[in-house]
Every structure is written in structure tokens, then in C-alpha cells.
Amino acid sequence: MLAKRIIPCLDIKNGRTVKGVNFLQLRDAGDPIELGAFYAQQGADELTFLDITATLERRETLASLVKRIALHLNIPFTVGGGITSVKDVGVLLEAGADKITINSAAVTNPKLVEELAKEFGSQCVVVAIDTKLYDTDWRVHTHGGKKPTDILTLDWVKEIYSRGAGEILLTSMNHDGTKNGFAVEITRTISDMVDIPIIASGGAGTMEHFKDVFVDGKADAALAASIFHFKEIAIPNLKNYLQNNNISIR
């Protein structure tokens, strides 16, 4: 079994870290640079920074923030929000990001996934999928979860995989912020479909939830926010728990 990764996620709005429930009811969770440095010291394997207002307000992700973050980190970090072009990605990677994540822009222009993979390598390209369950169908949402589409999530996974996505960041909107556990079944289904890493996101509330999504969901990494931001679970304790449950971690 490949080593699993623990990834704190910092959703950024107006330069501050925020967290909500089901993508709504945002509250302040601290300074993203301070939090990022703290998580690196705690043993996080990677970090993800998402400017959640970028696509809504049509703002570019601020390269200056990325530069400041990079100065305080010694672990890989991914940046997303408002990325719509090869040029945007070049600026962010030059500022210090290791990977970028795209969501709405990929749905609008699927060829962008190909262009980014060709220009920077698939290892730099994380495609984020915000998905919501309707009866029996999981469907893709864009614009920070605000806009539902008719795209079936499993069809979208096949398409972005064929176009060169290097990783998939899968967030279940039904589970996001609820702390009732990850969407294990859809995570496992997608993990079985493609041979690129799947990052599970949305619903972490206990250490057991991480074990479940790694073992039953076959996720390669698990991403969480509020339980780390509000110090409900410490990363060293989580890693000890996973190791004691025979899960290989970094």
C-alpha cells in the first residue's frame, strides 16, 4: 500500500481562512500563512489553499499571497481559485506553488486540462470536483458549489483523466462540514476507475473517518479543514492512530 497523505485545506476569502457547512455559513478560522506554517510543523504532508471567492468575483488568485506562503513552508502546497489559463498557472508556480487546482474553468473549457498537463506536466494539475448526490446520481457543481450542472460526476472523471489530470480532489457537497464522515462509496468507485491519486474531501469529523476513507474508500489522500483549524484533531495524533491501524502514512 502506498503511503497515504494528510492534507489540511485552507479556504481563503479576502486574505483570511474561512470555513463553513455545506459550502455555506462561513466563519473566520485564522491567518492562512500562520496556519500553513503551523500545519507544516505538525507534520502535514501537503497543504491546499483555495481562494473560494475567486471564481465568484472573477478575481485572479493573488500571487503575492502565494509568495508569502512559500516563504514559510517546507512541504508541497497546491493553490486554486480563479485559474483560467496557462498564464495564470505559470504565475502561481513561479510564485512558489507546487501544484494548482482547477474546477469551474475545467468544466467551462475541458481542453484547459490538456493544455496545463502539456505545459507543466500532469503532476502539477489537480482537478477539483465539487459533487452533489441527487437521488442516485452524483452531479458536478461549479463556482464554489453555487452552480449545478447536468454533468454526471463519473463521466466527468473519465474525461479529465483522459485529458491528463494528475490528481482528483473530490469534495462531496452533501458531506462538507458535517463531520459525519467522508463520501466513502463514491470515493471508492472513482478510485477503482482511474489510476491517478484521489484526494477525499468533505465530512471529516473523527480519526476513524480517515481510516474508513483510506481503507474502504481507497483514497490516496484525505483533506480536511475545520477539525484542524479549530484544533479538534491534531495531525500527530491522527498519524499515530492511522499507523496503529496498519495504514501506511508519510
Keywords:
eight-stranded parallel β-barrel; 28% strand; 11 helices; 250 residues; single chain; alpha/beta; TIM Barrel
Name the helix and strand elements from N-terminus to C-terminus, one letter apiece.
EEEHEHHEHEHHEEEHEHEHEHH
> Which descriptor suits the 3D outline?
globular
Work out the number of β strands: 12
The percentage helix is 25-40%
When the domains are counted, the total is: 1
> For the record, what CATH class applies?
Alpha Beta
Name the CATH homologous superfamily.
Aldolase class I
How big a fraction of the residues is strand?
Answer: 25-35%
Largest sheet: 8 strands, parallel, barrel
Q: Give the spatial strand order of the biggest sheet.
A: 1-4-5-6-7-10-11-12
Please state the second-level CATH architecture: Alpha-Beta Barrel
Stretches where pLDDT is under 50 for at least 5 consecutive residues are: none
The radius of gyration is 16 Å
Q: What is this structure's SSE topology?
A:
Elements: E1 5-13, E2 16-21, E3 24-30, H1 32-42, E4 47-51, H2 54-57, H3 63-71, E5 77-80, H4 86-95, E6 99-102, H5 104-108, H6 111-120, E7 125-134, E8 137-142, E9 147-152, H7 153-162, E10 167-172, H8 184-193, E11 198-201, H9 207-215, E12 221-224, H10 226-229, H11 235-244
Parallel strand pairs: 1-4, 1-12, 4-5, 5-6, 6-7, 7-10, 10-11, 11-12
Antiparallel strand pairs: 1-2, 2-3, 7-8, 8-9
Describe this structure in words.
This protein has about 250 residues and is an alpha/beta fold. It has a single domain, classed as Aldolase class I (TIM Barrel). It is built from eleven helices and twelve strands. It has helices at about 30-40, 55, 65-70, 85-95, 105-110, 110-120, 155-160, 185-195, 205-215, 225-230, 235-245; strands at about 5-15, 15-20, 25-30, 45-50, 75-80, 100, 125-135, 135-140, 145-150, 165-170, 200, 220-225. The chain has an eight-stranded parallel β-barrel with strand order 1-4-5-6-7-10-11-12, surrounded by six helices. Helix 8 links the parallel strand 10 and strand 11 (about 200). The radius of gyration is 16 Å and the shape is globular.
